[in-house]
């Protein structure tokens, strides 16, 4: 508990109120919605086969399927309407690749968003140091935005195929007994795929969030300032302005050398007074012209 309290005390949670941190929270939440609605799905549809001989009929054929939608492994037993024998039939299609790809991107987005939030809250200074952390974050965010685009489109197409393959009217055509006009086949219950439709919607919402996040991360990279010519790296400081000591009044007087003659001392008491006269640096009073005469 001491370690947790220390981390909480050192955390900078105000970044969560800023767009950079707030949008990461949304990405984290919607990634959970995406992989949970798709990865936890299980559905069922029901059909009935009424034979000419009622004793051979089966009015409640249930077919269950679930993620990852390897429908070619899903089977059910149907009456043949030729005695007590039944035939085993399999659904058509394997749509596990698009579904698993979608869930994988959602899981990795969830993990990266959680890691990025930890960086924002606890080591934000190192994240912004030399803009390296922000630049890495921008590249990874761009990759995730592209992956969300690909995975959402692929899963939308895969879901459309799953709906077709699990349509009871489509599955009835696989039953041999339904080819006979004296037998009656019909659907009883359609599968509920509202959860799968929601997963596709969450996929495209994540795509919008990650594309929007690129702008807020880009502002942290310093690339915009570098392109405009106003960016100064943190390890380099602009030169200080020229002072008076470098080429002004503090230079050594060329007349103050070892040569003889008159050498004024500007730093002493002697100098020009406000009345325009000159006062020397010694205390002896000047001799007036009247005395000399």
TrEMBL record:
Residues 15-222 form the MARVEL domain. Keywords: Glycoprotein, Membrane, Transmembrane, Transmembrane helix. Its main location: membrane. It is a multi-pass membrane protein. It comes from Gasterosteus aculeatus aculeatus (three-spined stickleback). Pfam families: MARVEL (PF01284). PANTHER family: SYNAPTOPHYSIN, SYNAPTOPHYSIN B. PROSITE patterns: MARVEL. The keyword Flavoprotein does not apply. GO terms for cellular component: presynaptic active zone; synaptic vesicle membrane. Belongs to the synaptophysin/synaptobrevin family. Residues 236-293 are annotated as: Disordered. The chain crosses the membrane at residues 25-44, 101-124, 136-157, 200-218. Residues 275-286 have a biased composition (Low complexity). It is found in: Membrane. It comes from the Eukaryota. This is Synaptophysin b. The keyword Glycoprotein applies.
